[in-house]
Amino acid sequence: SEYTKNAYQIPSDFVLRESSKLVMDALRHSELQPWIKTRYNPNEPLVLTGSKSERILTLAKVLTKRAAIEGRKINVLIYDRMNETESERLRVWQNGHELADVLSFKPYSELFEVTYLSKMPDPVEAQSEVFCSDVVVSVHGGHMGNLVFSTNTLVLEAQADPRWYYWMERSFGHVFVQLESVDVDRKLNGIQFNVDIHSILKYFDLIRDANE
Question: Which of 111, 112, 108, 129 is nearest to 120 (CA)?
């Protein structure tokens, strides 16, 4: 319908950039500071150019440089929704724990620090903290709105719907990658699925290569 078409209409790049600046400025000066965590680095690009693979490579270099400057590992959030019960039509990633397990061993553990969640914490303060991770591997859902708390994040998203959060690529410097689901089981109350872990690890290998 015409309504549906207009509902997903994305504003111009100028409007997106100016709007993101207003959001970041408002959060920096919010009365909720310092409880809400943000990660806005003025020295990092808010708009990455080139093909998807070129933007991922550029972002990989940004992430490794950021972690090196701050003297830490690259922070990774893995969120699979396995223990969520309150949402309707829930998307559940059943083998997210396998990725967390692999990343806990060398060589990945030498570069990456993993936060693995099956249930999103309720307070917005806690959500803002975990979504300031450098890499987010997650199921698509409303929680992705927390990406406004950070810039330049690599987002590996399962069951993605590009109509929603992908506009952040043009204003917050994030790069979104759609992960392919396998073993999809559609139920009345949602979808359960797996993701081939090797198809995810290739992006972590790319970051490792950028670090060398």
Answer: 129
Pick 41 or 15 by higher pLDDT: 41
Token readout for 83 is 């223990």
Supply the pLDDT for residue 198: 96
Average pLDDT, the chain: 85
Ramachandran assignment for 37, one of left (phi > 0), alpha (psi -120 to 50 degrees), beta (any other): beta
- From the list 159, 77, 82, the residue with the least C-alpha distance to 118 is 82
| pLDDT exceeds 70 at position 149 | yes
Residue 6 pLDDT greater than 60, yes or no:
no
Give the residue carrying structure tokens 């199921």. Answer: 139
Q: Which residue has the tokens 């570069």?
A: 111
Is 75:137 a contact under the CB 8 Å cutoff? no
Task: Provide φ and ψ at 185, rounded to 5°.
Answer: -120, 105
Ordered strands of the 154-158 beta sheet: 112-117, 74-79, 135-139, 154-158, 175-179
